[in-house]
# Entry
Amino acid sequence: QSVLTQPPSASGTPGQRVTISCSGSSSNIGGNYVYWYQQLPGTAPKVLIYRNNQRPSGVPDRFSGSKSGTSASLAISGLRSEDEADYYCAAWDDSLSVLFGGGTKLTVL
Amino acid sequence: EVQLVESGGGLVQPGGSLRLSCAASGLTFSSYCMSWVRQAPGKGLEWVANIKQDGSEKYYLDSVKGRFTISRDNAKNSLYLQMNSLRAEDTAIYYCASGRTIGDLYYWGRGTLVTVSS
# Structure
């Protein structure tokens, strides 16, 4: 089972907008929902975006998700210091498995 | 409030066995697909296995097939992972997660640490 492809790192200054990409294939992102998770240091992952672009209650609207073809993106606007975390994309794959991206470490400069 | 609480982790020798449990509350357990996801020290997330609402379908990561067994008891609102023939590379924090559909990991527990070492 292969992984989805994310950049290992991203950074921005407070107030900026940053995007994190996630690349897959027709058997995963192309045909199934994409999820995004935030993992703060020393804590469990938390869902940020589900079903491509839906935000759970309590997640600020600064976070948004989109999907096009076999790629997806997470955008964070109005970057804040508390957004410094690891971010993972995930999708069901037609090989009957869940695939995760390798994770992107976001640094707020 | 949905709570998923894992237990059963610990130190085990290579070749040994462990049984992880996940106790669920705050949701209609029998309506949710359940999954196990692990994270090796300093590494990313890796899906391990999942099971449909009624236990009729189960899926596994290739590297754990034949060694790990996922199961659930809807009467006890509990999920299990029986891990046999453990290897050093199975060392990780194991999280349970739940969602409405088979690929949906919406609610997460805090995890339990499994260390495989002699």
About this structure: The mean pLDDT of chain B is 97. Chain B touches chain A at residues 35, 37, 44-47, 50, 59, 61-62, 95, 102-111 (CB under 8 Å). The CA atoms of residues 29 and 63 of chain B lie 28 Å apart.
